[in-house]
Design brief:
The chain is globular, with a radius of gyration of 16 Å. Helix 4 crosses helix 12. By secondary structure, it is mainly alpha-helical. The longest helix is centred in the first third of the chain and has 20 residues. Bound molecules: fe (ii) ion (2 copies).
């Protein structure tokens, strides 16, 4: 029998090391005000966005990306779920199974976020791409545009991996958090939905948190 997951075993050391980069990102392009909008609407999405940012930046460092690209990753991760500010809290926090209508509404958050930031203007196209496409999967089964591998940029793939991992290790209203290696195993079982080479490169980030 597997031991119950002890939350205190989850190390945030890697994430804390990236805090200066995150704080810098909050000052850029009014990102801070959008993050504040998310925080006021739904604390869970706010905490999730910070967690995704920590994992995404740690991942970018493992990939030895240039500082400029690491910064871009941080901005994209902080903003990726800004569209959830338009989704009612009772749907975001619903403990049970979502109805088809509720699921359809949740699946609009990438488009809502993209439209919001496009209207503000000034955001690089790569970041808008991450906001709109972080739920796309390489086999075409994602949303909102059912893109396939060749249409999904590396930056988006990196955010997607950090996003799915974060969601699995977080407590959610409908399930408890999973231990990091178990979460990683679930992602490996996703097969051709995720970029296998990138997932392998993500393993050390997972091991650092376990
Ligand atoms: Fe999302
Ligand atoms: Fe997310």
């Amino acid at each position: 029998m597997e031991a119950p997951h002890n939350k205190s075993s989850f190390s945030f050391g890697t994430l804390e090391a990236n805090t200066p980069l995150i704080l810098e990102a909050l000052d850029a392009w009014g990102i801070g005000s959008w993050i504040e909008t998310v925080r006021r609407h739904h604390g869970g999405t706010y905490r999730h966005s910070l967690l995704v940012t920590g994992f995404a930046v740690a991942f970018a460092q493992k990939l030895k990306m240039r500082p400029k690209d690491q910064q871009r990753i941080a901005h994209a991760a902080l903003l990726h779920d800004v569209g959830k500010s338009f989704i009612p809290i009772d749907i975001l926090d619903k403990p049970g199974k979502l109805t088809d209508d509720e699921m359809e509404l949740i699946r609009k958050h990438p488009r809502y976020g993209y439209d919001l930031l496009t209207q503000q203007g000034g955001f690089p196209v790569e970041i808008l791409d991450c906001v709109l496409h972080h739920h796309e999967l390489l086999d075409g089964s994602g949303y909102p545009d059912h893109l396939r591998a060749a249409q999904i940029a590396d930056l988006v793939r990196i955010i997607t991996i950090a996003d799915i991992f974060s969601a699995l290790v977080e407590d959610r209203p409908y399930r408890q958090s999973l231990p990091p290696m178990k979460a990683f195993g679930i992602m490996e079982d996703m097969g051709n939905k995720l970029d296998g080479d990138l997932l392998n490169a993500f393993r050390p980030v997972v091991e650092d948190t376990a």
